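Batch manifest, entry 17 of 40.
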Amino acid sequence: MRRVVILFAGLAAIMLVFAAYVGLPHSVRAWFSEPFQEPTQAAQEATLTAKHVEIALPAELALGDVQSMVALPYIDDFEGPWPGPWQETGDLLWDRVDCNFHSPTHSASASGDPTCATYYDYQFSWLVYGPFDLSGASAGGVGFRFDLDTESGFDGLVAMVSTDGNAFCGSGLSGYSAGWMNSYPGFAPYDFADPDCPVLGQPQVWFAYLFESDETITYTGAWVDDVCIWRDDPSVCLNGGDEADLKVLDQYIYPPPDTNGDTIPDLNVSESYEVWVDKIVHNNGPLPLVEAVLDWWVEVPPGCTFEPLVPSPQQFPLDVSITGGTMEDGYIHCAEPGIHTFWWNNCIYPKDPGITDPDHNNNCRSTPLEVDFHGEGADVKVLDFWTDPPELWVDVSQWVVVNAGEIKHNNGPSSATAAAEWGIVNPPQVNVRWLAQPGDECTLDGAPVPCDSPGDINDLHFEVPLPVSETVPVWRDFELHCKEEGDFVLYLWNEEWPIDLPDPNPDNNYLETQLVVHCGHVEPAIVRIGSGSAPTCSEDTVSLTILGPPRPVGAATVDIVYNPAVAEPTDWVGGAAYDTVLCSLNPAPNTVTCTGISAMGVPGDSLLADITFHCIGETGECTPLDVQVVTLADPAGSPLPWVDEDGEFCCSGCGDVNCDGQIDAVDALFVLQYVVGMRDGSDQCPPPIGTLYLPAANVNCDSIVDAVDALFILQHVVGMRPDLCVCPGAQVAG
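Output type: structure tokens
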């Protein structure tokens, strides 16, 4: 990466756009060739660019005859009488103001507004200095500060030169500078040797500022300050003495990426590696520098090389109180294995030997980079090793499966096949055996045994391809069984090595972990779904609960399987004890899935969800509600033992509001008594005395229990209406 980045805090705030002026009363719009859309103030947030400009001063604004030459150098901070040696011409004139300035207390304003609140429409305002003599000059230019806040692309400030006081040439800016600036490429400082407008060596030269605006939209304006017009010697424009206190504030090295988690990057002798270095520098003044020099070099350890991609030294301007940054990079390589230290060094100083630095103690900085190069072979490393879960509660009557996993890496330089040996040191109270995969081998106390042996299997052996620079995860399962009650710790170890290749760093081939096992008689939790019933086209709600868990519940996922020809779920409400509960009513045509989680765990009995079912079957049809537990675990992720209790949902008789198994005139009587307020409704079947079973009363499916329902029941009793509750298709919610 070949680049040098110079960052300046002053430039970071620039949001300017330069483009075509339109609607101006003079020929200025001929300077620009590309149209612009009407901008807003927000549209000024763009990149500042300079535009070459050539213009002839209109005859009606011509300067007066030359009476005498003006002197150089000329320095003006606009603290003296206005306009001094400057000539003004145009529609509206410049003026000296004290409402916005760089130093000490005044500046020149393009609008002359003493409040700095706005400029005016149709401005065409000139401020001219000259003529002055540049014959025989070796160099020359104009340094100045400027502040700009104009309608982007339509109003702006131009800096120009002329050799006859009529035809001017230069560049202009438009937009918003976010405060005072002292430099912008092609605009300031202005160079008399600019090949687009060369005036160096001419006997008569004028320098001018021109401010223009169109017929609409104005902001606060344009100002210039601390103008210095010079020839031959630019140092006449430097204020504050001949000292510049330069500092290297910090240096950041970005080493080659390390995938092994070390503080020292592990590298291969067969490759070169790119290194980036950022440096932060500052000019504490009092002198701004046209050019600061940053000299940098690398101290290379024996047997190693460094190939720079950025030249040294670097040169750049550095204004007072400005913090800047540079970046360089290059390639490091070491032919011999081992730990090597590279030192990055840098020093900053003024390029001009006539400028001194009053404090040399902070001009330089050195930073080390330590790297570890490896020779031929395969540097195999175990990055992590764990069990899932790390802690387990086990009933002494059960075999429990535990997952073990690792992450391994090959730092090369060669690809390899890694041999792995995993072992378990288990107490005699706990049996263990690996659940091997095809190709795995097992041992017990070092002797080979079949992996499906019924007893202990302590060690597991397998091989895994491990390409160079690759990170590979590996999992294996084992079973454990408690012989007696108590708390026990199992220690697991993992050792890796490359087959038929040397390992240049064998110290990182081994890791250990442990598993805490609590053995005892654990009463299982009961995962229960309640039972319910409803007439055709009606609904009932059943509760999904977890009762008596041995430890708080951290995560639970339960499926409820039902017959979709009899019932279908329409709604659910999660239990309040859990942090989050989600139920899916249709992950499959015959299944409701509910899951809940709690970070701290839910102790004791808990409601996971209430689930509402809609009866779509015939009277008397029932469907089992089959509980299938997918996950039940505590907050640590350890499984909880469980048993399930299924429920049932039935479609009860429609019209049998007293629940006596018959539909007769008594049911019609009870409905009429309910309609006139002589009897209450109930959701119990059979209903309490003085009530009726309300879900069976709406026999015409209009969601209202009224005298029509009593009439339908009587019609059914005398044979005029064969069926009750003949309803349209149920509208089932997701």
